[in-house]
Design brief:
CATH superfamily: Oxidoreductase, molybdopterin-binding domain
Structural class: mainly beta
Largest sheet: 6 strands, mixed
Strand content: 25-35%
Number of domains: 1
Number of helices: 3
Radius of gyration: 16 Å
Helix content: under 10%
Number of strands: 13
CATH class: Alpha Beta
Order of helices and strands: EEEEEHEEHEEEEEEH
CATH topology: Sulfite Oxidase, Chain A, domain 2
Length: about 200
């Protein structure tokens, strides 16, 4: 794992924020950067996002086409498995619901997905954790284009799960009938990653 600057110290949650901080987490005002390998850099001219099921292409968007999809802003707290929590983060992107609609899907074709990213990273997710406004493919943070160090030009954002599930540099979403582990899950991280249940590692409840 590569760790870069962005940590600005631990803060104890006060009475107004304590209920928003999962067990075992501390609050930071910084935005630490952790990656499984080198930071990926993809030009917008070369960037695409595709959606597939059973080996069939459901949809594919260039950057220009993706930017023309409905844009949504989300203000949310995020929680890293390394125990930091950052409150009131502001994102903009395309919700998973709008991606499904743009692909011409009335409903998800299966119950699970695998997110595939530049650099070979993957992570698995139940579709239930992506729909109903729970997740987006984010392109902006704090009203600025998402930097490469934070997963730009586009990353998955699933804020109610530990942040490793919010895969950086996303390029492909594949639907699957069965749940199967991705990169960190294969290495011993929890298959789901709910911070409120402290599902950090395999075997956690």
């Amino acid at each position: 794992m590569v760790v870069t600057r962005g940590f600005k110290g631990r803060q104890r949650p006060d009475d107004t924020t304590r209920a928003r901080v999962p067990p075992g987490q501390y609050v930071t005002s910084g935005f630490p950067v952790l990656t499984a390998g080198p930071t990926q850099h993809t030009s917008l001219d070369d960037w695409t996002l595709s959606m597939q099921a059973a080996g069939r292409l459901l949809a594919k968007w260039s950057w220009r086409e993706f930017e023309m999809l409905p844009q949504t802003e989300m203000v949310t707290d995020i929680h890293c498995v390394t125990k930091w929590t950052k409150l009131d983060t502001r994102w903009r992107g395309v919700t998973f619901d709008d991606l499904l609609r743009a692909a011409g899907l009335d409903a998800p074709p299966t119950s699970f997905v695998m997110a595939h990213c530049d650099g070979g990273y993957t992570t698995n997710l139940p579709v239930a954790d992506l729909i109903a406004g729970k997740a987006m493919v984010a392109t902006h943070f704090d009203n600025l284009p998402l930097s490469a160090t934070h997963g730009g030009p586009a990353r998955l954002l699933v804020p109610h799960l530990y942040f490793w599930k919010s895969a950086k540099w996303i390029r492909r979403i594949t639907f699957h009938q069965q749940d199967s582990p991705g990169f960190w899950e294969t290495a011993g991280y929890h298959i789901h990653g709910n911070p409120w249940r402290e599902q950090r590692y395999e075997g956690d409840p």
